[in-house]
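Kindly go through one protein, given below as sequence and tokens. The question is how this chain folds according to its tokens.

***
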Amino acid sequence: MRNFDSDCIFCKIAKGEISSEIVYQDEFVTAFKDLSPVAPVHILMVPNGHYLDLNDCAESDKELLGYILLVGAKIAKQLGIDQSGYRIIVNDGPDAGQTVFHLHFHLLGGRPLAFKNQ
């Protein structure tokens, strides 16, 4: 498990130094409501150790990455969107829209989700 970064907002949330509406937390991952939701359900899931993005992960992190997806499914069920459908998204790098450089997964649901062509 990686250490926290003392300057990272998501690390501070995972450590409980910054208040957030946490919906799930264990020794590996913290999940909390996004402050600027784009869907009725918009949860951010972050590994408790600091990773900048997917490119910062190694082969040895594959269990953690898979575990985060399983946590996403557990949260979707907990929030009642597992049957209607949900999306899990990772924005990796500035061109993809990543604004906080701590690897995080967006869990979106609670309404029909469409793809937009840009």
